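In response to a reviewer's request, we include the raw inputs and outputs for one of the modeled complexes. The two entities were modeled together in a single run.
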Amino acid sequence: MIASLTVRLQREPFDAAAEAAKLRGRGDVGAVVTFTGICRGDEAGEPIAALMLEHYPGMAEAEIERHVAEAMVRWPLKGVTVIHRHGRIAPGEDIVLVVTASSHREAAFGAAEFLIDYLKTRAPFWKQVEKASGKVWIEAKKFDEVAAARWRAPGRKTAE
Amino acid sequence: MTVKVRYFAWVRERVGKPEEDIELPTDVKTVAELMTWLAGRGEEYAYAFGNPQVIRAAIDRAHVRPQSPLKGACEIAFFPPMTGG
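The model returned the following structure tokens for the whole complex.
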């Protein structure tokens, strides 16, 4: 059966359970891994009113699709769904969804982790938090760079 | 050569506009050279591009390095390190 691939950017909330359910119910899927990134209620110890997510339309889709294609090469996947929201997001709301489906769990876990690590460092999205003291752009975290770098095989050529 | 230059996040805020069409001087040949040239265009550009090491770039919607050539580019974007996910 051909793999089921979905990449979507949207302002509106998504239903993580319904999206994951779409990748079940086919005979060749034995493992589905779902990662949901959620808006926290505080940033650096200060409560936030909301998160504003800016993105680069066109490039964001292209960059995610590139990494989904790479995941398909690295792991025997039966389905991948990536949904990333943009615009204003309130604490407690979902921001991003990665669902991977495969015959066995190893591929589904590996691909989901690979995709979220790359989304954080390569997909053109920028977070700004609204605090009582004003609006602040979130700075990129060293941890995220390190997490993404471990997927780079030695000697492997990358765009950057 | 005229290119569309786009700015995102705090680069956009500092420059004060999301995008503009720019006629590239013939001696501006790489991404790094364009950042240096932009920084000399005025106070707001100097503020945005004063520390080019922290700015990332894309040509025609694909990530590029500072030394990447601009030749043939239609759209060049500048932005801070990404914080999605």
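As requested, we also summarize the result in words. Chain A has a mean pLDDT of 92. The first strand of chain A starts at residue 4 and ends at 10.
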